[in-house]
User: Fold Malto-oligosyltrehalose synthase from Cedecea colo.
Amino acid sequence: MNIPTATYRIQFRNGMTFDRAAGLVPYLKRLGISHLYASPVFTATAGSTHGYDITDANEIEPAIGGREGFDRMVKALKQAGLGLILDIVPNHMAASLENAWWRDVIENGANSRYAHHFDIDWSRRLTLPFLGDTFENALENGEIAIKPDPKTGRPAFACFDSFYPLAPETWQGREAELLKLTDRTEIADLHERQPWRLISWRDAPRYLSYRRFFEITGLVGVRVEEKRVFDDTHRLILELVHSGAVDGLRIDHVDGLADPQAYLERLRQQAGPECYITVEKILGKGEQLPAAWPVSGTTGYEFIESLSDVLVDGDRIRDLRTAWHNVMGKSVNMVAELRAAKLLMVTRNFEGEFTRLLTLAMAIAGTEKVPLEEQAVLPALRELLIAFPVYRTYGTAEGLPTESYDMLQGVAERVRTSAHAPAPEALDFLTRILAGEVSAEASDEAATFRIRFQQLTGPLMAKSVEDTLFFRQNMELALNEVGAEPIPRAFSLNRFHAEMKTRLERQPDALSGTSTHDTKRGEDARARLYTLTEAPERWAECVARWCQMNQAKVIRLEDGTAPKPSVEWMLYQALAGVWPPRLHPQDEAGLRALEARFIAFVEKALREAKLRTDWGDSNDAYEKTVLDYARHLLSPANQTFLQDFSDSLQPFIRAGLVNSLTQTVIKLTAPGVPDIYQGSEALNFSLVDPDNRREPDFAALARMLDEDKKVAFDVNEDRSGQLKQHLIARLLRLCQQKPTLFRRGDYLPLTATGKQAENLIAFARAENDDALIVIAPRLVFSALQENLTISSADAEIALPDQLAHRRYRNILSGEELSLGDRIDAEMIDCFTASVLVSI
Assistant:
């Protein structure tokens, strides 16, 4: 199998074409990348900014160069010795009239040849939730009419720029008559005769008749579990793999599939043993990928979460939590907050999915002659969904595998003994359905229930935690990341080391990411914000002072003050993370550019929190007040605050730059395939999407890498990211020289002793005669403030026999040294990483 040594993610669209990507190949080669990792490149809806809303899985997007441009890019990659990994989207397609398959389904209903390509409930009419109001009101307001479709000339329901095709039997032979139809009653009657019905987007959570991607009604689930559907949606993908153009595949949202393992087994069989395959999968703490999945691993969200064990001050974070509670005016019970978020989502945002599960359960109860009322089953189902600790189990029509069965039993027991315990007989009944312990007569319904349940627990977890709780609870924004645990926990180097050993054992070829197109903030913003845990009192004092400075912009509204102290805390922390390290408070152009990005983030953060405003029901007065406050923070006229903010931020910026290098060194040397997200080889202080999908200045990055002057790290001067970029280039070249060491070498935690031991992380990789020793700084905020260094009495690192009494070269400095049975402190720089390779 062609295992990458390092991948580089590029976001196509928004100006990035295949030809432009081909032009970056020399730069990627010099950086040490082995594989370009492309966002979805198949034809998507017009103007798509991301490509996940695919309309034709068997065509390369013309807007970014089409097949000819794609082939030119592949040729450039191959000539340079680079491979290509494609991000593919088997779970869903665009529910758009631009999608020929979807359009055919609208026109022909259950008789369409694609009717069962999509995950549609055909027991009722297909719902099209794309109106701004009810159908009746839209018709009354003249927003709906019968007009000829501009593309086909056939009569269609016209609503603004959309033309919904009519079922052939309702218009054939009546074209002229229908095109003159203006009577609203007759138009409504015609609407009732279609295999679909137009409804308001607000009614989608309750009435949607097809499986969607999370809450996005514009993305319809695809039934790739069916061989015909798999073949139809993977024809071009497999052609590209078999031709050698594509070396690997990244599977988007694998947990959305009805049977992930069966899909992956079919894909592996069709793609062949040499194709590198990873899956986008959120792993809970301690959760591992099913061993039977024929993949190399995940795309690396759990690796991001693991880094917090290195960079968070586990002893002082409790002080930051105390400060946060003081701002909130109460102690926050995160278990209760998580329950509240899940309860909101399951009863409101996923009401339709929940209702369908409940209906299935009651039907099974009837088949099994179980004497249960809906009023007993409903709370049991709700509590079981809310209590699920991971994205999903992996049951099939036959039942649950052992690991999933054990997890289900554990969850059920927690529900049974909780303060919200439902009727035990109802809970036992649902558990039996999920476990497959039903009669033959009910087995088909039980299998459907099991699959639907599993396809709901993932979106419920994601939307409750990542897109609700993490925008409500802002104690430490660096911890509010995709794949992170929402419940407070301890942080320790020992746990990090244990997880890396497990990573080497279970998925050594998984991607190790630190930024993606879906992370809540860029890796260097996260690295900076980790330092708040080292100086919590200082941070709290700063926030209190800034709140006082900007108090005049806090407004009393009917529903309370805006922004509340908890929102102010979030705003200052988010601004601290995104603040460019070279931005001067008097740089008006720089402030305006930052404001545009920051305001978009604030609006999204307020709506995702779902407290005083929401995407579906915005509170304009509240939003305007908070956004005005945020604008005031970055107003050039607000110099007293801006100067104080910038000055106060400097020690956090300096410590954050050290953290940035540490997490980069770890990513490049720990088990896994390092993944560089576009532009993150320098500094990435982005906010949540769409900010994190902006194109970096590739020309500037290339010039910076070309500079052959000696790169020296100075936390006070180097704020361009040049050292980070050169560090990556050097380590990736070493990785290419010694791939087996990096891929299969033992992971050996090393222990530092002495007064400054807690300020270091050290580990080694060893394989036969090759060895690599990594020493990196951590928790250096105080040392930087006091201009401390580690003296000979401060720390030393003992070496095991397989590392001791050998010569090494420091990859970063070029220095050669002989080591005995320990590394003495004079060989260690408190603020700079050391990477020693045996020679």
